[in-house]
Structures are given as C-alpha cells and as structure tokens.
From TrEMBL, chains A, B:
Name of the protein in its database record: Probable aspartoacylase
E.C. no: 3.5.1.15
Lineage of the organism: Bacteria, Bacillati, Cyanobacteriota, Cyanophyceae, Nostocales
Residue ranges occupied by any Succinylglutamate desuccinylase/Aspartoacylase catalytic domain in the UniProt entry: 4-192
Gene source species: Amazonocrinis nigriterrae CENA67
Span of domain AstE/AspA barrel-sandwich hybrid: 206-287
Keyword field contains Protein biosynthesis: no
C-alpha cells in the first residue's frame, strides 16, 4: 500500500444533513484536530448553498452528480452540476487523484447507527472496515456500489467511503451523532497514521458486511400516491433479518402487507426521508459473514 | 355550550409533516371513519403544493399567514398568502365561522408525544383537554397563544386547536405516530358526539398544562452561524424540568453552556428542525397544575 499523503473530509454534500456539515465547521475552526504527523487533512463543505438553505439540494442531488461523463458534459449547468465539477477540480478523480482518501459524511432518518458505505472491495478499505467494526460494535459495513459505475462523490477516489449515521431528522443538529461521528473520524485518521508508520493495527481477519441487492418502493396507487407506510414492526429495524412472510408495509386502511421474497434479507435505509422522491422505501441487502481478505 | 354542527380536520398545513397529510388522505378514502351521528366532519389538505413537493412551504410558512389584517391585504400574493385566503373562504373566521371545531394536525422533530396546542382558555377546550389527558397519559396540553393575536390556522375558529406529535423526522410517514394520532382524533370526535348528546364525558376537574413564556435561540457567532447544539442531556427531554445551572447547549468545541434563568422551566419543541430558521432552539413553558375551570 502506498503512503497516504492527503485525506479529504467532506460534509454537507446534502445541505440538510447537519452532522457532517457542522463537523466541517468545527474542523475549519480547529484544524489541528484532524492533522496527523504523516499526512495532511483538508475539509470541504460539499453543498454550501443547500446548507445555507437547509435543503438537501438546490436543483438536483449533488451525490448523484459524479458520473465521469457528466463531469465532462459542459451542457450540464445546474447549481449541483457546477458544484460537482468544482469539487472534481479540487479532488481530481481515480485516474488523477489529488487525495488518497475521501471520507464523505452523511446522515439518515433510518436507524443505520454508524454505517460505513463502501463502493469497492479494495483490500485497504476492507481492512479499515474490519478494524473499525472490531473496535466499535456500533459500526456496520455496507457495500453499495452500483454495477454501471458510480455517481457518488466518494467515487472520485479509490479509497473513498461514506460514513452514514442515524436515525436523525433532516435539518437537525444532534449532539449524540455529532460526537459519535467525530470520534469515528479520529479513529480513522489514527488508523491511517499507523498505516503510514508501517504498523497497521491488528483486527479480525473477517468482516461482516451487507451487500446491496436492490430496493423496494412504497405501494402506490395509479397516480403514484403512497398507499401504505413502513410497518411499525419494521420501522427502525435496519440490519435485522426480514424473512418471507414478515410484515413490511401497513396500508392506510390498516392491512398488513408481508414480504414476498424467497429468502431472508437485511433491509437498510428503512423510511429514509430523502428516498421517497427516488421511489425507495428501503434498500435490501444480503448479509455476508466471514469474508476473508 | 351550543351544538357542534361541523368539524374540520386539517392536515399538511406544513407539507413535510406527513402524519397529518396522510391521515387526510385516509379520511378522504374512508369518510365514514370521521362522521358522527350529530355533526358533519370535513377534511382539508392545508398546503397541497408543499405536500407534493415534500417541503414545509413553497414561499412562506402557511401556519403564520392567518393574521386578520393579512387575510384582508390584497397585496400579499405568495402561494401561501393565496392559500390562506382560500382556507379563510372555506372555514370563515371567529366572527363568521363556517365550522365549530378545527383540528389542525402537525408533527415535530421534538419529543412532544401527543401534544394539544391550545390558543385560548375557552372552557370547552379546557374540558376536552382535561378529558383527553385523563384517558391517555401520553397527551400533554400547551397554551401557546401569542399576545398580539394569532396568525395560526387554528385561530380561524374559537374552538380551534393543534395536535402536535413527535419525534418524527420531516418528510417521513411513521406508522406509530399515524396510528396514535388517528386514535386520538376518534377520541375527540366521540367526545364531541357525546357533548352534542348532552352527556359530557366525566373527567378530572383539574388540568396540567404548559404555558408558553418565551423562546431561546442557539448561540451564534457574529455572522449568525450556529456555534452550539442542544446539549445531549437535554435532547428529547421536552416537558421535563430545566433548572438554573442545568446543561442546555454544547458548543462545537465541546464546552457546556448552562441554563441561566432564575426559575425552573419546561422546554418544549427542543431542536425542532423547522425552527432553526426562526431563531428558536426551544420554547420555554411554565408548568401549571390544578388549574380549575
């Protein structure tokens, strides 16, 4: 593994996810907190206008604006398209990286705890994830790369990943999640420092992770209007097994809809506010245990 | 007390408060649920465009658009100003009521449980509140009338009140709060029916309620930027006593700020997402017990 020279911490990629945005504000005021002897750490407020407005985005989702071809497309000119290109200028991309690690801070209304969202099976990321989940049982690890390349900000860097925390409402700064995320960031930076010193912290040689396999939308009527809600027995049960026949939705008129899959899955992002407009009531994952790397 | 002839249930006055908006959708589909033998119940989706957009409002807060003089002011022409005038045409006002009771459904990111927000000490409202809190211990009662008249939708009717439920994130339909709110509405309607029948349900002759006395903003710097968050010991502690010297905020750099008031107060709307832009970190109330009416 080559030396880590530069780490970027991004917050506020979604303007109403305050945990990350205010951590960036803190690190801007107290930059020594994130410096380590062997590498430089820089901060970036992802979407300043959306943060100022307290909205997820101004024109479109910034964290879906990083397809390579879109970054090269000069006809795309919404606020977020322009912002994505500016971030690309700062951070480079996989082929021409200005940074070695990107940590992109997000929050969710789902009960995701402290989740690491990985976009690749890079051995270094897997070792880091294994270490973090071994020192903090609240840490969960997901692999959510789409097949056709990624439009996520984290994809600008081979060692890019997301820290996703919750449940926390949009537009709210919650001290508990602020502190837990801050502590996790320091653990990551300390880990990277030790790697640079040649003493990679020991961790289990296994990793439990959750592999994205698809999404489920809310039941809707012919006009696209939602006709059922997440079943109360499933709400806040992210990362727990969902077995065929288990309650999944409750219709407005009180009927239970059961999960009709053929095997046990592990839903995540259950009832994430920002995914209603994407037609996603939850994401489904498969639990993978004892993956050796 | 004169007979109740018509009740209006309003939901989605704020478009991203889904509990009320989806209850209106349910009652539109199943109107018999809210009809009672002696009166008519009508429903109203407060802010359809904001609900469709998943936002609190389009141009301005609809639930601050009901000052009498604003309703008469033809120069006010934002979407919500026009919508407020349309609602006023439907419901009338205190002097010319088309309805006898307004129930306006809201949700909050604060831990408000099932709160009744009253704008007057009308004996009928106090008796109703006393009854509801006696049959359901989760019900809390607040008196939040501003001194200079009200710009709330509920103020269009002498017997108007708000049901405020939470904690629930903006833009999320949560089944538990949906069901609790629905049940409370039926309890209200059944109570009104019994009043019309001349058999007012018995309840304690006392009422515990929380009287609004003011607001506290987040600590901010010279640019208006928030420099501290709700202290983790205060988060979700709505309706609990806050005594001088108790932790109230935690600065971004980790310092505790204590409450400097001179007497014990009971904060509500602690960390309500929609109040950041209003400069409100929480509202303070005084607890009043054994109020006899």
């Amino acid at each position: 593994m080559h030396k880590i020279n530069r780490v970027t911490i991004v917050g506020g990629t979604h303007g109403n996810e305050f945990t990350g945005a205010f951590l960036i504000k803190k690190f801007e005021q107290l930059p020594d907190l994130i410096q380590r002897p062997s590498f430089e750490t820089i901060t970036l407020l992802g979407n300043p206008q959306a943060f100022a407005a307290g909205k997820r985005y101004i024109d479109k989702d910034l964290n879906r604006a990083f397809f390579s071809e879109d970054l090269q497309n000069s006809t795309l000119s919404s606020y977020e398209d322009i912002r994505a290109k500016a971030i690309y200028q700062i951070l480079g991309d996989k082929n021409q990286s200005q940074v070695d690690v990107i940590i992109d801070l997000h929050s969710t209304t789902a009960n995701m705890g402290l989740s690491l969202m990985l976009g690749s099976y890079h051995p270094f990321l897997l070792q880091l994830a294994s270490y973090l989940s071994s020192v903090n049982p609240e840490v969960k690890v997901c692999y959510t790369q789409a097949e056709k390349g990624s439009n996520f900000l984290r994809s600008l860097c081979e060692l890019g990943f997301v820290i996703e925390v919750g449940p926390v409402a949009q537009g709210v700064l919650n001290a508990e999640w602020f502190q837990k995320t801050e502590k996790l960031i320091y653990t990551v930076l300390d880990y990277l420092e030790r790697c640079n010193q040649g003493s990679i912290p020991e961790s289990e040689n296994t990793l439990t992770f959750y592999q994205f396999i698809g999404t489920i939308d809310f039941p809707r009527n012919e006009y696209g209007e939602i006709q059922a809600m997440i079943h109360p027995q499933l709400q806040f049960r992210d990362y727990e097994p969902l077995t065929p026949g288990d309650p999944i939705f409750l219709t407005l008129d009180g009927k239970t809809i059961s999960y009709e899959g053929t095997s046990t899955v592990y839903p995540i992002f259950i009832n994430e506010a920002a995914y209603y407009e994407k037609g996603i009531a939850m994401c489904l994952t498969e639990k993978q245990i004892d993956f050796r790397f």
